[in-house]
């Protein structure tokens, strides 16, 4: 994923945060933090953005004590996102 695609994902999530229901706003906010970190971590090599984002989510979702519904919603929203 290029930096442009990462920026597109970030901007799409911002839009979802503004227009979605409470759950969608929560999922968007959660993902925005992870996307921001992945963008920062991969500035030198933007092709690794999606891999870094996936690793970040896999390592933190279990620790964040989210409900199964929230975890599924986060994954579903990310699956909807432009690639």
UniProtKB/TrEMBL annotation:
It holds the Pfam family YfcL. InterPro entries: UPF_YfcL. It comes from the Bacteria. This is YfcL protein. It comes from Neptunomonas qingdaonensis.
């Amino acid at each position: 994923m290029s930096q442009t695609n990462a920026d597109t994902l970030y901007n799409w999530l911002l839009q979802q945060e503004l227009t979605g229901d409470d759950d969608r706003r929560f999922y968007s906010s959660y993902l925005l933090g992870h996307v921001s970190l992945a963008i920062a971590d991969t500035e030198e090599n933007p092709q690794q953005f999606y891999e870094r984002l996936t690793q970040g989510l896999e390592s933190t979702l279990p620790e964040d004590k989210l409900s199964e519904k929230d975890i599924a919603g986060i994954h579903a929203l990310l699956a909807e996102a432009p690639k």
